[in-house]
Amino acid sequence: MTELLVGTKKGLFVLQGEARSEKPFEVAARAFPGNVVEYAIRDPRSGRYFASVTSGHYGPRVMHTTDPTGEWEPTTGLTYPKDDEWTLERIWSIVPGEADGLMYAGVAPAGLFTSIDGGMTWELNRALHDQPTRKDWQPGAGGLCLHSIATWPGDPSRLALGISAVGVWLTEDGGASWRHGNKGLVPRYLPEDAAEDTFDLCVHNMHRAPLRPERLFMQFHGGVYRSDDAGETWISIADGLPADFSFPLAIDPADPDSAFVIPMVSDGDRVTVDGRVRVFGTRDGGETWTSLSDGLPQDDAYLTILRQAFDREGEGSELGLYFGATSGDVFGSGDGGSSWFSVRERLAPVTSVRVA
Amino acid sequence: MSVATVKLRSPLRDLAGGNREVSVEGSSVGDILRELERRHPRITGWVLDEHGRVRTHVNVFVDGERVQEDAPVAASATVHILPSISGGSR
């Protein structure tokens, strides 16, 4: 049985079903009605569920539970300091770390929070927050947000972060110090004579290949990139895609040459290209891309798939893929994208999809 | 020190142990809200943000008048904490 945690503009939907049956999933629970659920995960180590919930009235917070059909409780510490000029607006991502109890949360305005007690309490990473350039950080259209946290398998000292629009940040000392990893990224939205070392770089999504952790894939604000040196430098791999603008990104953990994207027209028209919903996959590190659209809408289907609304289940021959759109539709594939089925229709606008 | 009656609706009521109203000591709205957080820690962060300001889309009324954190609270006042109509779900 597959369990999907689908964050929407109107609460969290817990969907359950069998991917191989290609039948719609059941709605096992709806939590936080009326609130935006930005993101939700289940930490496989503890079995605990976490949801980033933003109340239009009462602000953002991370809630937790061991039973997503039951009661949820707030975690603590996920706020900027009382004397800071920033106020927490939104929690974009929650990621299990590479040590017992270690977890990360990426937030807006852009900051990294760490938990060492399995997500119950959180603390701001001061080294990133105290960067002298922070006063010059510029937001993307979705805000100034830290959305991508790429851990290094087995090594909690190494992290790569993606911030919109402040580029890639790297640490090799567990977050005690940070440096940029932006070489090769081309921001077409800046003048051609913009400074070569600009950090106004709008990373949209970033994932690490766990079997070759020095390899990362990135969906940029106009561009798809790969790094083979742990995020120091980036090369374009967008040739062969119908468009290079998008937000969602997924990988097959068993195949370091794999990546999956869902192209959208442009930053001025954030919908699927030509009214066709198509996932594009590569199995050769981005040298070539294959359209994976069997079963997806191909006629006048102008969908928007948000940054966190694409995830995978399993790996290799057992790879499943799932994504949701702001139309409220959720699609799934139990065969690595070769064929797709409708997981659920007409939910609220989907902000995130994660396999529990 | 004044004692005010703070009236709560869901979800704040649930965070305060299901109490629809709570008697809280304090001479200003800020005092009352901080004391409310101290007695019911699960409310922390819901009404006041991390800087101690009433959240933008929450309204606090004292005896029917909408007020800010620094407003005085008289003995036996009734304090309502309500979501504003401007802050609904996106």
Give a description of the structure.
The complex is a heterodimer of chains A (356) and B (90). By secondary structure, chain A is mainly β. Chain A has one domain (78-355): Methylamine Dehydrogenase, Chain H. Chain A is built from 1 helix and 30 strands. The longest helix of chain A has 4 residues, at 126-129. Chain B has a single domain, classed as Ubiquitin-like (UB roll), CATH 3.10.20.30. Chain B has helices at residues 12-15, 29-39, and strands at residues 3-7, 21-25, 58-62, 65-67, 78-83. Chain B has a 5-stranded mixed β-sheet with strand order 2-1-5-3-4, covered by helices on one side. Chain B is globular and about 35 Å long. Chain A binds chain B through residues 9-10, 34-36, 55-59, 61, 73-74, 76, 79-84, 87-88, and chain B through 11-12, 42, 44-47, 49-52, 55, 57-58, 83-84, 87-90.
Strand content of chain A: 35-45%
- Count of separate structural domains of chain A: 1
The name CATH uses for the topology of chain B is Ubiquitin-like (UB roll)
Query: Any idea what the shape of chain B is?
Result: globular
Q: How would the global form of chain A be characterised?
A: globular
Detail the poorly predicted runs of chain B.
Answer: none
Structural class by helix and strand composition of chain B: alpha+beta
* Mean pLDDT across every amino acid position of chain B: 93
State the CATH topology of chain A: Methylamine Dehydrogenase, Chain H
Average predicted local confidence, pLDDT of chain A: 97
Using the coordinates above, name the CATH class of chain B.
Alpha Beta
Tally of distinct domains of chain B: 1
Looking at the chains present, what oligomeric state does this protein adopt?
heterodimer
Largest sheet of chain A: 4 strands, antiparallel
Q: Considering DSSP H and I runs of 4 or more, what fraction of the residues of chain B is helical?
A: 10-25%
Largest interface: A-B, 22 and 20 residues
CATH architecture of chain A: 7 Propeller
By DSSP, the count of extended strands of chain B is 5
Which range does the strand content of chain B fall in? Answer: 25-35%
